[in-house]
Design a protein that fits this description.
alpha+beta; Beta-lactamase; eight-stranded antiparallel sheet; 12 strands; globular
């Protein structure tokens, strides 16, 4: 436990380093308790795998530091945070009338991408099932991932997996579901998901979205390996906290944000609820929505505290089995949330 002198000393060091920027010092003091914020930042820096932390209070950056690894404005692989980005593109496509809604079947949209000997149950899979990873098909994540990405046709491979559950059944965490979503969006828009991401998100949010992995047929990988900077991650989270608005522009409809944050299924790994691209949990009685990527790439949004947090981490090991994911959740729940409570 840090003494009051240690905490205040840490705060002074942070202020001297420019982490709490002078022009925003009043906002920082009002939005998050400075001493508790300083202690949380110290805790973050002591986690050897944590690379960068960005904290926004009511949209204002009150803490931002790259402890190691790429800087705050340098795109880095955010792994499965990509699923949250891809889900937002589905919402943008619905907003633009390119998709009729989440309940439309995907088979007619995929057309000749369907396998010639398709299981009849493929006709029952909807966009909703892809977004919630309830397609029922055998997973392509975890121990199945390598065989999938080494196949000659990723879309065909996913659609040819055996059914483990019925469409609309339990959540089967699978990047393949989001890759099918990427293919669907490409088909209905007539443009790649890279172009869509840059047009519908990158431009309005003024964030960089570099090209990422493509499959052998040219479809951008849905649900993995996108690159965003820590500040871009925070801005994306803030877009959802602001009900789809950024700088007065309605980038996503408020209805899409609301439906994305509605619990629809549950992860058997964490026990947390899942909507469209976002997990749903709680910290000290506050609802928390979070996007998560392998190794500890995180976006946390706590709307009732006006708090948005982005974390990037070393990709060398999974965050779940090592306990690092729990450390990040504790950093939020025991450090940043109390700072926001006291500041508010």
């Amino acid at each position: 436990m840090q003494s009051r002198r240690d905490v205040l000393g840490s705060l002074a060091a942070i202020a001297a380093s420019g982490l709490l920027r002078p022009a925003r010092a009043q906002q920082a003091a009002r939005g998050l308790d400075p001493a508790l914020l300083a202690a949380a930042v110290d805790e973050a820096g002591a986690l050897p795998r944590l690379q960068a932390l960005v904290v926004l209070s009511d949209g204002v950056e009150v803490a931002g530091q790259a402890f190691r690894g790429p800087g705050l404005d340098t795109p880095t692989n955010v792994k499965s945070v990509s699923k949250s980005i891809m889900a937002s593109l589905a919402g943008a496509a619905i907003d633009r009338g390119l998709l009729a809604g989440v309940d439309v079947p995907i088979a007619p949209l995929l057309g000749d991408l369907l396998p010639t000997s398709a299981d009849p149950r493929l006709s029952r899979i909807t966009v909703d099932h892809l977004l919630t990873m309830r397609a029922g098909l055998e997973r392509t994540s975890g121990r199945y991932y390598g065989r999938w990405v080494n196949s000659a046709n990723w879309v065909d491979y996913v659609l040819s997996r055996p059914f483990i559950d019925e469409p609309g059944g339990n959540m089967l965490y699978s990047t393949g579901s989001y890759h099918l979503l990427s293919a669907v969006l490409t088909q209905v828009a007539g443009r790649s998901t890279l172009e869509l991401a840059r047009d519908w998100l990158g431009g309005p949010l003024d964030i960089e979205i570099p090209p990422w992995t493509r499959d052998p047929q040219g479809f951008y990988l849905g649900g993995n390996n996108m690159a965003l900077s820590p500040r871009a991650m925070a801005r994306f989270g803030e877009l959802y906290r602001q009900n789809g608005q950024h700088d007065g522009m309605q980038v996503l409809s408020a209805d899409w944000v609301s439906t994305s944050w509605t619990p629809r299924t549950r992860s058997r790994f964490s026990g947390h609820a899942y909507g469209y691209g976002w997990f749903i949990a709680a910290a000290r009685g506050h609802r928390v929505y979070y996007a998560r990527g392998f190794g500890g790439q995180m976006i946390y949004v706590v709307p009732d505290l006006s708090l948005t947090v982005a974390v990037t981490s070393d990709l060398s090991a999974p965050s779940g089995r090592t306990g690092y994911g729990r450390e990040l959740n504790r950093l939020l729940a025991d450090g940043l949330v109390p700072a926001a409570e006291r500041g508010a």
